[in-house]
């Protein structure tokens, strides 16, 4: 609309100038000198006002662009008592300034939020200009972790702690890498990663560091607490009846020593000692079971044809009802420790057989497939009742078991073996069909 009225104003002025020009030409041709003089005066005035019309509007636009150049959006243009087109221009400029002010305010608010979040997190973050070394942004977590005061240039770090400068600033870690640092005369392990980015024509580096010593220590402490809790519970369950029975037998023997005439039931004594022996054996078995969790620390890897592996296990478990093996490709192979992999599969198969033994027609399927991402998956499927949701997160916890005579280390040991192989073990319920345990290499 503003351009339409602007165009009409230009056309009217151009038409008026043309009419005056024709009148001036006519007066000169007819030699009406007085009328020609008056027409010439009107012609000059028309040109002057035409020029003022354009120049004033260009001055307004130029003034606005000058404000934009210096990012001054605080001005408010008074649109009252102005011509219609200028009034509309001023209203448009005010709208632009108001929109930019709102966007700037939102951007500043977002920056404050981001800054506050980055200050609160326990991860060190530093960004600096690679060419000048000027610090663009650093949070307190980084300064506290590295024991630095506030600094404006990384040259400060180079002069203060050359070792940290060399390990953290000079090297490029495109992926997260654990780095050992010596800070406050203490050894500190941090996980650090770098990222290069550009701000206009400047190359900048972002450094992210995380103190993993605290995390590892906390995790290790929690693991020890859980382990000691389980071990204490298991050991006390075995020791308490042994102690009670031993005291009962000791009292009976002492009574017989004090009074030889008092009878002692040798059968009860034998049964009590047998019970102590049995529970002691159970305690020894528990200790050996715990030791097996730490036994697997290294692998003897080799290329294993899954066809041969399945054949060996099938021969070993040929009397198991409902057990089937399925191989997508006879040439499928994995690089693994054959002894340990066989141990894991036997354990999973026995679990699957036990889970489906109450079904009228138990079925256990062991199959191997090559996934779309070239990973090899060995899956053990059963048609049992599946895994209850409430214990799904606990089945890999050492010594956790729902079996009456289970040790609770089978799946924990299987997971440790798969971790050593650089793979993983997954357990999923199959809708209405039981459970599937997958080994992914």
UniProtKB/TrEMBL annotation:
PROSITE patterns: HIS_KIN. Its EC number is 2.7.13.3. It comes from the Bacteria. Pfam families: HATPase_c. SMART domains: HATPase_c. Gene3D superfamilies: Histidine kinase-like ATPase, C-terminal domain (3.30.565.10). GO terms for biological process: phosphorelay signal transduction system. The chain crosses the membrane at residues 33-51. Keywords: ATP-binding, Kinase, Membrane, Nucleotide-binding, Transferase, Transmembrane, Transmembrane helix, Two-component regulatory system. It catalyses: ATP + protein L-histidine = ADP + protein N-phospho-L-histidine. This is histidine kinase. The lineage of its organism: Bacteria, Pseudomonadati, Bacteroidota, Flavobacteriia, Flavobacteriales.
């Amino acid at each position: 609309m503003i351009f339409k009225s602007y165009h009409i104003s230009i056309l009217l002025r151009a038409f008026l100038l043309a009419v005056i020009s024709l009148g001036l030409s006519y007066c000169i041709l007819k030699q009406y000198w007085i009328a020609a003089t008056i027409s010439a005066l009107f012609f000059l005035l028309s040109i002057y006002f035409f020029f003022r019309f354009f120049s004033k509007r260009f001055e307004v636009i130029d003034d606005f662009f000058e404000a934009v150049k210096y990012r001054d959006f605080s001005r408010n243009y008074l649109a009252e008592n102005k011509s219609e087109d200028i009034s509309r221009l001023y209203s448009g400029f005010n709208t632009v300034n108001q929109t930019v002010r709102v966007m700037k305010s939102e951007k500043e608010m977002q920056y404050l939020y981001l800054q506050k979040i980055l200050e609160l997190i326990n991860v060190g973050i530093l960004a600096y200009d690679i060419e000048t070394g000027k610090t663009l942004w650093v949070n307190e977590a980084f300064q506290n972790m590295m024991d630095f005061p506030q600094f404006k240039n990384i040259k400060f770090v180079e002069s203060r702690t050359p070792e940290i400068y060399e390990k953290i600033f000079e090297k490029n870690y495109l992926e997260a890498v654990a780095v050992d640092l010596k800070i406050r005369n203490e050894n500190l392990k941090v996980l650090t990663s770098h990222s290069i980015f550009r701000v206009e024509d400047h190359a900048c580096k972002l450094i992210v560091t995380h103190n993993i010593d605290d995390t590892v220590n906390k995790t290790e402490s929690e693991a020890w607490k859980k382990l000691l809790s389980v071990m204490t519970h298991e050991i006390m369950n075995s020791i308490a009846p042994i102690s009670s029975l031993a005291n009962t037998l000791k009292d009976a023997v002492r009574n017989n020593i004090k009074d030889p005439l008092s009878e002692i039931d040798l059968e009860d004594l034998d049964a009590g000692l047998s019970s102590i022996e049995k529970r002691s054996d159970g305690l020894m078995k528990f200790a050996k079971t715990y030791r097996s969790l730490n036994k697997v620390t290294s692998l003897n890897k080799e290329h294993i044809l899954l066809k041969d592996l399945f054949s060996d296990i099938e021969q070993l478990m040929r009397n198991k009802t409902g057990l089937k093996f399925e191989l997508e490709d006879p040439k499928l192979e994995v690089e693994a420790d054959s002894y340990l992999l066989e141990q894991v599969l036997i354990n999973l198969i026995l679990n699957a057989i036990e889970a489906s033994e109450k079904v009228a027609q138990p079925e256990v399927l062991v199959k191997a497939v090559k996934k779309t991402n070239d990973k090899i998956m060995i899956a053990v499927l059963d048609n049992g009742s599946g895994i209850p949701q409430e214990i799904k997160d606990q089945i890999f916890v050492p010594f956790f078991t729902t079996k009456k005579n289970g040790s609770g280390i089978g799946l924990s040991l299987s997971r440790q073996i798969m971790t050593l192989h650089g793979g993983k073990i997954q357990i999923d319920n199959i809708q209405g069909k039981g459970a599937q345990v997958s080994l992914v290499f």
